[in-house]
Amino acid sequence: MNADIFRLRRSMKTRATRTRVALLCVSVLAIAAVPPAQSVARAVLAKNSAGSQKQKAPPAKDSPKAAVVPFHAGEQLEYRLSWATFLTAATIRLTVIERRTLYGWDAWHFRATGSSESPLRTLFTIDDEFDSYTDAATFVSHQFETYLDELGRKEKNVMELTPQGTVPRGTVASVIVPPATRDPLDFIESVRAFDWERYPELRVPVFDGKNLYDIHATREALDEKISVPALTCEATRIGIHVFAAGKELDHTKIAIWLQRDGTRMPVAIEADLPLGTFRMELSLTAASANP
Fold first, then answer.
1. Exposed (0-12), middle (13-18) or buried (19+): which is 101, by Cβ within 10 Å?
2. What is the end-to-end Cα distance of the chain in Å, rounded?
3. How many separate domains does the chain show?
4. Which of 10, 110, 171, 180 ranks highest by number of CB atoms within 10 Å?
């Protein structure tokens, strides 16, 4: 355990590979725990303002019909994160905040929060929040926000994800990304909404706020029994493969289990990484009535 803590602390002090424990958990991808792939510099980050961006893309006159989804506004899922000998290293919450209009887009607002728990918190005080505004029809990410509070250091980033060949609509920082790009929270809900009964694989680019990756999600088991603190159920196991510059990342093995019912809740997420095995298990569910 001491060796694991030493490696984690050393990693968090190294900017190039600084591990954001909460982002690692909620993104499924453990993106921040591996060396950078394509940086924001290559993705072209440009600060826009109402004055500097004269041309604004008008909202489409005929918006696509919203996709049928297994979640609804008000849903909240709470997870217990275990790592090394820490059975509860952190608590993670995934929330569907609302469905709203953002710069003319019909979008879902997702939020994830992560906080380290005692006794690990005495070593690493982490309280992070991530917000995603995801297109209700296409599931592409329109805006991604990170509010990090880690080891006494705070960092805030708000960015619009602008597909190549289009222009930004908002007044925040704009990152030029490939078409169909997701952010980490958006990706989780995309996997959840995907029809795994009919199709065996989902491939999308994912931008984590700093780096761009190609993600291949594959169905590994359609019907597998799993037990977590919140329930015991039948689940579909999805393997997550992370690629950078066309090469799959070494020593990175990730899986997500989706409950086999109408909600398709992610009941467990497990990532085997050089820093050890991180496992999120659903511990509590809360949801308002369907609107």
1. exposed
2. 47
3. 1
4. 110
Structure-block tokens of residue 194: 């995907």
Is 275 a domain residue?
Answer: yes
Q: Which domain holds residue 141?
A: 2-43+66-286
Q: Is residue 291 part of a domain?
A: no
Q: Dump strand ranges (E) for 84-152.
A: 86-102, 105-116, 127-135, 141-150
> Is 209 among the domain residues?
yes
pLDDT, tens digit, 9 for 90 and up, residues 200-252:
999 999 999 888 999 999 999 999 999 999 999 999 999 999 998 899 988 88
Structure tokens at 218: 């594959």
Q: In DSSP terms, which residues pair with 101 in a beta bridge? A: 106
Question: What CA–CA distance (Å, rounded) separates 53 from 37?
Answer: 29
Quick: pLDDT tens for 241-264: 999 889 998 888 999 999 999 899
Distances from the Cα of 127 to the Cαs of 32, 138, 188, 271, 284, in angstroms? 16, 31, 20, 20, 19
0.70 surpassed by pTM: yes
